[in-house]
């Protein structure tokens, strides 16, 4: 009888633990390996000294290919600036297309990340050229697969690989705030 009572108490004691384990698993937020991610954002840029700037939109499409902590993808941005007294035109449009890699650090709702990008910039008022970038940001999952995101990128421009060292100090900052979804 004592043995039956002990086993019954042990079994009943396991039910809350199983319920907590199931809740913990169902409340996991963020991507899994193989998931894709789509982000739409507003973006702004400024020169290194914050003297000039512009605004635009940016879209990212990425894949968690190898690990849920490594996002590889492509990013497209379109920007507009209206500059008084410009020689060419008062209205400037430009775009950039680049590949990127981001590494988020935590598996919680708050996910800081570091990353890098490499691509090209083109359009009015800019030299069509290559650029690289280092970035940092933060995602906050408001739902299991939906997040708000903020990112800052330091971009440096170059025409040839040997120009990278010379041009790193002449880069520009790009800031992005947006919404994203894992699917």
How are the SSEs ordered, and which strands pair?
Layout: H1 2-26, E1 36-47, E2 53-63, E3 71-82, E4 91-104, E5 110-123, E6 129-141, E7 146-158, H2 164-167, E8 172-182
Antiparallel strand pairs: 1-2, 1-8, 2-3, 3-4, 4-5, 5-6, 6-7, 7-8
**Biggest sheet descriptor:** 8 strands, antiparallel, barrel
The string of secondary-structure elements, in order, is HEEEEEEEHE
Low-confidence runs of at least 5 consecutive residues: 12-25
Strand content: over 45%
- The CA-CA distance between the termini, in Å, is 53 Å
Q: Shape from CA axes?
A: globular
What is the arithmetic mean of pLDDT? Answer: 81
Put simply, the count of helices is 2
Helix content: 10-25%
CATH architecture verdict: Beta Barrel
Number of strands: 8
Broad structural category: alpha+beta
Strand order within the widest beta sheet: 1-2-3-4-5-6-7-8
CATH topology name: Porin
Radius of gyration: 23 Å
CATH class: Mainly Beta
The number of domains is 1
């Amino acid at each position: 009888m004592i043995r039956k009572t002990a086993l019954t108490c042990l079994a009943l004691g396991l039910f809350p633990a199983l319920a907590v384990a199931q809740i913990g698993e169902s409340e996991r937020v963020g991507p899994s390996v193989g998931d894709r991610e789509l982000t739409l954002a507003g973006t702004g840029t400024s020169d290194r000294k914050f003297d000039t700037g512009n605004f635009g939109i940016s879209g990212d499409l990425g894949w968690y290919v190898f690990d849920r902590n490594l996002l590889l993808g492509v990013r497209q941005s379109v920007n507009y600036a209206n500059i008084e007294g410009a020689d060419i035109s008062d209205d400037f449009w430009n775009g950039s297309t680049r590949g990127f890699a981001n590494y988020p650090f935590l598996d919680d709702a708050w996910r800081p990340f570091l990353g890098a990008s490499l691509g090209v910039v083109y359009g009015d008022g800019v030299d069509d050229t290559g650029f690289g970038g280092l970035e940092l940001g933060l995602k906050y999952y408001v739902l299991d697969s939906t997040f708000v995101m903020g990112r800052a990128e330091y971009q440096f421009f170059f025409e040839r690989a040997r120009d990278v060292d010379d041009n790193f100090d002449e880069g520009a900052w790009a800031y992005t705030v947006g919404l994203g979804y894992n699917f």
